[in-house]
Structure formats: C-alpha cells, structure tokens
Amino acid sequence: MADPLRDRFVVLGVSGSIAAYKAVDLASRLVKAGARVDVVMTKAATQFVTPLCFQSITHRRVVDDLWDRNSEMAVEHVGLAKRAAAILVAPATADLLAKMALGFAEDALLTTLLDTRAPVVIAPAMEGDMWANPLTQEHVAKLRSLGMAFVEPEEGRLASGLSGRGRLADPEAILGTLRQVLGRGGDLAGRRVVVSAGGTQEPIDPVRLITNRSSGKMGYAIAEAARDRGAEVTLVTAPTALAPPHGVAVAPVDTARAMHRAVEGAARGADVLIMAAAVSDYRVANPAEQKIKKRGEAADGLTIELVPNPDILQEVTGDFVRVGFAAETEDLLANAGAKLRKKGLDLLVANDVSGAGSGFGSDTNRVILLGRGGEIEELPILPKRAVADAILDRVVAILAGRGRGAGGRRWVETHR
User: Which residues, 6+ apart, have CB-to-CB distance to 219 below 8 Å?
Assistant: First the structure.
C-alpha cells in the first residue's frame, strides 16, 4: 500500500505566526511524500514568509487573496475545499483558532475551512500563556468536538525568549497525524494491531546487561504502516534510539519478561500480533544487586548462569493473526520453516541478518515471507517501510480469508 499522502490533494493553511517559516519545511516534506500541495496563506502569514517560498517548493500557485480574479478555480475557496483530501493548518495562531471556532469567513483560509468536508489537522503555535488561556482552550475543545484533529504544541524556547508550551510540534508528529487521519478508511480500519520492536535487555548487574543488535526500525516501520492503513496500533518496544510514532499507543519495556506481560495484555481482543522484536532467548539467573567488581574470582573470569526466557509468540494465545520473525545467519529457509511450524504462525518473515542491506540497524531489508499453507515469497532489498507494507498486505489477505471461511486466497504463486 502506498503512502496515504501520495497523489492526494492536501491544503496547507499557514497563519501569521513566527513559526510560519517552519511550514515551508512541511510543504517540502509533503511534496517529497508525493502529495499535491495547495498552500493558502492569511495576510498576516505573508508578513513572515513570502508566497514565493511555497510556490518554489510546491510548483503550484499560492492562494493569499479571497478576491483573486485570476484564479484557476471559479471560486477559490470552493475549489480548494472540494478537491482537498485533507487540510493541514500549520501553524495555527490563537486568532485563527478563535475565528475557526466561531465560523468566521473573512479570508481565503477561513472560507476554505468553513466550506470543506475533508478532515482537518491543526498544529497550533503561539506564546505559552496564549495557549493556556481558557478562551483558547475553549476554542480548541469546540474544534475537537467538530472532529478536527490537533497536534498540540511542544515545550521549548519561544519567540519571546521565554520557555513554555507553544512551539510548533515536530514535523514528524504533524505528518504522522495527517497520515493517520488520511488512513482512517484503509484496509485495516477497525482492526487492532499489536507490534513488538527492538532488542530486549537482560541485566547482569545495575551497570551491565545482555542485549542484541536490533535497532527496532523494522517494528517501528510496521507500526507506522499499520497506523496509516487505519488500524488502532499498540507498539510494545524495548529501548531504541527511535522517536515514538505519533498516533500509536507505545508501551515501553526492557526485559523479555516485561515484554511478555505487555504483549499479553495488549493482545487481548487484538486482530493481529506481529512480533518483530528481537527477544533475548536467555536471561541471567541471579542478577547482582551491586556492580560486579573486577576482583577476586571476577579478576580471572566471570561465569554467569543463564536461564530460558518465555517464548512470547508460543505462550500468548488468542484469536488473532500471528506473525513472527526469524533472524538467521545460516540455513535460512530450513530454520524459518521449523519456527513457523513450531509456533503455529500464520506468517513468518525470515531474513539473513549477515547479508548486505538486511542486517540490524539497516534502513533496508531483504526478507522471505513464509505462509501457513506453504506459500513462500522472496522479496528484493527494499526500504523497511516497503517491507512493512508487504507484510501487512499478507496480513490483510489472511484476515480476508478468515472472513470468507477456511482457505481464503493464496497471496503468492511462486518462490522467486
């Protein structure tokens, strides 16, 4: 499934905030994602950044005048409102929020917002006391009640030099929310998906631990892709260096046993469980309460007793599609097939982590998909987000097959 932004008409509304310059970056990211971006600016916004900046990036005429007789559309705001798949207002000032909540229609942006039936995402930016003001919050509550989505401002240094909650949210959070909103009608709409990610950590003492090389990138990509297809997603994640995906419920854990408990709880009532995490097979039997010093017995060597961790995929039960991963360095298909059968999985994603472009920490992956019915499909090296969508394509097919009774449709013909 393609990025929900690709080939979609998105109206980017820009109001008169010092953060208006950040909207230029948002426009660039939208265009890079394949969206067709129409920028609508208030007169105040043009005092901070020129329409030419946006036009140079979007290669589309910027609308900043409600009464422009040279418009390509008969009535500008009607044309924009009708063809928009979504409207993103970033930044939104306190003044604009008030006018939106009261139904004002005094400029091109306000009239477009009043006339549209497309989903609206709002990213406010203003001084902290303005955001906290009860009147602003009343307007926000009114707009939320009308179904508009908010990406709340962040804490940080503001234009005044003060610090507070009022900074425009991170671009990834804004675009993540926009993708989530556009994906509401996707092929996983109404489904609950649980994804695990990252490498679990088993303590040796308060300083040292046993872990693995997993970066969590594959699991995070799957969580984002499921979100963009309309699913309600819970991401159970071991520690990573990645930012939590916006619009996803995140359950942070550290050890394998903590992940087991979190997955077990999240999987109740779920439709899909995808265990992309690299879970430690063993843990230290008796972790030291204090740091182990290099003296005595430890000076010559240290023996650590390991005991097995729970097998999460095998022990967490429920009426959901079960997807596992097999990271191997040899005999990939044989080991993956054995794991698929042993754990009773619907789908197994196998990859040789010693191969170029498919190891831990890579932004790409090369996988083989194995199905319960003997289906095998080998994918080329792809970005992990593309791999995530390929996996979810199979999950959607499995869910559809279950809905039609036993058998369903086969999702691959040959092993290339």
Answer: 195, 196, 197, 198, 235, 237, 274, 276, 277
Is 95 in contact with 15 (CB distance < 8 Å)? yes
Domain boundary among 140, 156, 182: 182
**Are residues 250 and 367 both part of a single domain?**
yes
Question: Which residues are bridge partners to 308 per DSSP?
Answer: 282
Q: How many angstroms separate the CA atoms of 25 and 2, rounded?
A: 22
Cβ(255)–Cβ(200) below 8 Å: yes
Cβ(99)–Cβ(21) below 8 Å: no
* 178 and 194 share one domain: no
Domain boundary among 167, 182, 197: 182
Each residue of 267-315: pLDDT tens digit?
999 999 999 999 999 999 999 999 998 876 556 788 899 999 999 999 9
Between CA 250 and CA 258 the distance in angstroms is 14
Catalytic residues: 212
* 3-state class (DSSP) for residue 397: helix
pTM for the model stands at 0.88
Q: Is 143 helix (H, G, I), strand (E, B) or coil?
A: helix
Using an 8 Å Cβ cutoff, are 29 and 2 in contact? no
Beta pairing class for 202-203 and 209-210: antiparallel
- Cβ proximity of 125 and 158 under 8 Å: no
Give the model's pLDDT for residue 68.
Answer: 66
**Spatial separation of the C-alpha atoms in residues 14 and 214, rounded to whole Å:** 40
Q: Tell me which of 409 and 37 has the higher pLDDT.
A: 37
> Element (H or E) spanning 304, and its range?
none
d(CA 171, CA 310): 39
Here the CATH number for the domain that contains residue 178 is: 3.40.50.1950
Q: Give the DSSP letter string of 112-133.
A: HHHH--S-EEEEE---HHHHHS
